[in-house]
Design goal:
With 102 residues, the protein is mainly alpha-helical. 84% of the residues lie in helices and 0% in strands. It has one domain (2-101). α2 packs across α3 and α3 (62-77) runs antiparallel to α4 (82-101).
Length: 102
């Protein structure tokens, strides 16, 4: 139990430092265009890295996962709402799984 509190204290310190250091080190507005564009795309990249593997491993059938992903990409490309994209992707996965079962 003693190690738990040590680990907790270390993780709290690391989390605090990660959030505090950028505020302390950057006192003025960023002017570097490369750094600004890099920081702009980080949330999209992180979300993609977390979501795309989950899409392919959430379903036991690889063909169904690809079909759902393809439907999601096509509907998102045509600016459909998030609810429609999710619903039609789920329907595509279900349809492919039912077709392969029979």
């Amino acid at each position: 139990m003693n190690n738990f509190f040590l680990y907790l204290a270390v993780m709290a310190g690391v989390t605090y430092l990660i959030r505090m250091l950028p505020l302390v080190l950057m006192r003025r507005k960023l002017q570097n265009r490369f750094l600004l564009s890099f920081l702009y795309y980080i949330p999209y990249a992180v979300l993609s890295v977390m979501t795309i593997p989950a899409i392919f491993y959430a379903v036991g059938n690889w063909h169904a996962a690809v079909a759902g992903f393809a439907v999601a990409v096509i509907l998102a490309f045509f600016n459909r709402s998030l609810v429609k994209v999710a619903a039609f992707s789920c329907i595509a996965v279900l349809a492919v799984e039912l077709l392969e079962k029979f």
